[in-house]
Design a protein that fits this description.
By secondary structure, the protein is of the alpha/beta class. The chain has one domain: 3-Layer(aba) Sandwich (Rossmann fold), CATH 3.40.50.1110. The protein is built from 14 helices and seven strands. The strands form two sheets. The protein has a five-stranded parallel beta sheet, with helices on both faces. A two-stranded parallel ribbon has the order 6-7. α2 crosses α14, α5 packs across α6 and α9 runs parallel beside α11. The longest helix is centred in the C-terminal third of the chain and has 24 residues. The radius of gyration is 19 Å and the shape is globular. This is GDSL esterase/lipase. Belongs to the 'GDSL' lipolytic enzyme family. Keywords: Signal. It comes from Panicum miliaceum (Proso millet).
Length: about 350
Amino acid sequence: MSSSLQRYLPWLMIFFCFLLHGGRVVVAAGKVPAIIVFGDSSVDTGNNNFIPTIARSNFWPYGRDYANGLPTGRFSNGRLATDFISEAFGLPPSIPAYLDANCTIDQLATGVSFASAATGLDNATAGVLSVITLGQQLAYFKEYTDRLKAAKGEAAAKEIIGEALYIWSIGTNDFIENYYNLPERRMQYTVGEYEAYLLGLAEAAIRRVHALGGRKMDFTGLTPMGCLPAERIGNRDDPGECNEQYNAVARTFNTKLQELVAKLNNQLPGLQLVFADTYQLLAAVVNRPADFGFDNAVQGCCGTGLFEAGYFCSFSTSMLCGNANKYVFFDAIHPTEKMYKLLADNVINTTLHVFM
């Protein structure tokens, strides 16, 4: 057997497994030993429960459709995309939060999220609601690698770190929470300059994880953030409609992010970095919700669905929707579990395509 065939055979086996299950995302177990996550509320599985911030969701109605019907700190009615990705790789069906002291290093060895709701690539974004910066997430990751080595031994830890799939989901808050909401960054940078600044921070973070042994990485692009219910209601130029200025920024940022991915794959030995385009999928769902089994892509399930998120959802439970599966968004910012499942399938298919 040629060395090139040996290299790609595991991914070919996954692909055939995918075909045999009728196109559903089913990945053979054991190909990826862990899912390691950096980012914001789209992938925070509860870290913000353990820090002093109002950017939390560890209360009802969040988690109402989770396994035990209890809130976990996930900004959704159930699981997140990263949870579904973990399950698809034959790993546990939910990824623990690093700051949860109840989780042992053995549990964290198959998956861990360092993410923090309301954070961004820019430290100033994290400062708005006093959450965990990306730099601190990377410091936690270094601490995690040391704990793995102590618990599993140098060789086993190196295997986990080197073969794990790293997922980055971050950047939206830098625009909608920081750049367009506060004056400081707009006074310093044009939007193009700010994009370049953020991409520099993303590059430094990826290089840091690579230096610590990470090789397989997925960087998720921005979604059409102008179509979030909160941004529709805040659209002064065209109230109730998607903010197309924000969507245009998401598209240009994604294009530049893809260029960064290509550059780093060329420069960093052994790096397999992919760009996951979630923009097109969510845009299609928002434009044609019925095609994907949704009734409502304009409002969230919680309250009026136009501005409620976080604690405001807990104040508006009398208006909570009956069936979250009919909604694209659970609150005014975050998707429902059903939408996260669609996003997860999209990311997995992208990953398989690249690694085959």
